[in-house]
Specification:
Length: about 180
């Protein structure tokens, strides 16, 4: 997807916020929180959105797990993808257990793997097409922004625990409300 096309769908403020959030050298939690709030608005959050305080994420985690589980379960897949569907559901369940026991940074790779799997189940092999992002923007602009956000995240990330927490909570927020 060309930069011009991205500029057609993403406000400059949102693009800058993703850049700030993913910049490893800027690791102040306040900067990450401000950037996350800007991105959340692009996801459709109202002006009152905040990142939950530490140890107050229970409701968001529950909504994320329930909504993504339902989304995956309701997604019709080819017989050849049925095993992948079961695998992604298992990974989601394991992630939701692990996030309570492990660090956010330990759970970061699993989160991205789950998202990649869930989006593949929803859209099939089309997700591997270089034009998929543009397609996502056109069919559902908020989902397109979310997918662009996910694709902008580094793999792996070398961030502080606070930054990993903010990045994951922001992704969970979108999926809890999708």
């Amino acid at each position: 997807m060309t930069k011009d096309c991205i500029d057609d769908f993403i406000e400059k403020e949102t693009a800058q916020a993703v850049e700030e959030l993913t910049a490893a050298q800027k690791d102040a939690a306040g900067d990450a929180t401000a950037a996350a709030i800007t991105i959340a608005r692009a996801f459709g959050a109202d002006d009152g959105f905040t990142i939950p305080e530490k140890n107050e994420e229970t409701k968001l985690l529950s909504s994320f797990e329930q909504n993504l589980t339902l989304l995956i379960q309701k997604t019709w897949v080819e017989k050849s993808d049925a095993e992948l569907k079961d695998q992604v559901l298992y990974q989601l369940q394991q992630f939701c257990t692990d996030i309570k026991e492990k660090t956010w940074s330990e759970c970061y790779p699993a989160f991205l793997e789950i998202i990649d799997g869930a989006v593949y189940l929803m859209f099939g092999a089309q997700t591997k097409n270089p034009d998929f992002l543009e397609y996502a923007f056109r069919i559902d602009p908020e989902f397109g922004i979310f997918w662009w956000y996910i694709q902008s995240l580094p793999r792996p990330a070398e961030w502080s625990e606070d930054r990993c927490r903010i990045v994951l909570l922001l992704g969970m927020y979108f999926l809890a409300n999708y």
